[in-house]
Amino acid sequence: MAYHLRSASAPSSPRSNETKVEQQLQSLSTATSSPSATIDTMCDGLRTLGDLFGCIEKMVCTPSNQASLCQTVQVRKAVEEELGRSLVLLDLCNAMRESFMELKTIVQENLLVLRRGEDASTHAKTYIRLVKKTQKQFKKITRKTVSDNKQCRVVMLLAEAREVAVSLLESTSGLLSKQIEMPKWSLVSSRTFQKSKVVCEEEQLQALERGIGDLESGVELLYRRLIQNRVSLLNALSS
C-alpha cells in the first residue's frame, strides 16, 4: 500500500514554511527507505518531493531570501556549489527517464511474447541487464552529490531535498531490481503455457508497466521543479 504524505502546501509564515518542508523531507526519507516501500510509495514520494521543491522555489523567490543569498561571499559560494550539484541530479533524472522508457518497451514486448505463447527468456535477460545498467549509472553519479553545506537555511533545504531525491531514486532502482529477481516476477516461462499462468503473468506485467509509467511521470515532475529552482537561484545571484 502506498504511503500517503501530507500536502506540501506552504504555510503563511516563512519560518513555519521552512520547518514544515524540513519535517516533510524527513518523513519522505523515512517512508521511501522503509523495507515495506512499494512502487506506489515511490510514485507518491516523487510527487511529494516535486511539491516540496516547488515550496523551496517559492522561498528562494521572496525578496528577503534573494537578498540573503547574495549577502556574503560564503553564502554566494554555497549557492553556486548547490547549482553545480543540482546539475548532477538533473543528469540522474535524465538517466532514470531513459531507463523507464526502455523498461516500458521491454515490458510491452514481453506482453506480446506471452500472448503468442513464445519463449520470453531473451527479453527477460535484456530487462534484467537494463536495470543493472541503471543501477551502475546511478552509483557513479550519486558519489558526487554529497554536501555538508550549512551556510544558509534555504540552501540547506535544497541540499537536503537533493539528497532525499538521490536516495529515493536509488531505492526505486533497487526496488525494480528486486521485483524482477523475485520468483513472482519471473519472465522466463516454458513453451507450454497453462492459461491461468499466462493470465497471472500478464496481470503482473501490466501492473509493472503502469507502475513504471507513474514513476516516469514523477521523475518528469521532479525534473521540471529542479529546472525552476535553478532558474530562481540564478536570478537571485544576478539580481
Automatic annotation (TrEMBL):
Compositionally biased residues, Low complexity: 1-16, 23-37
Family matches, as Pfam families: BPS1
Signal peptide: none
Renumbered residue ranges of the record's region Disordered: 1-37
Coiled coil: none
Domain of life: Eukaryota
UniProt-recorded name of the protein: Uncharacterized protein
Organism: Brachypodium distachyon
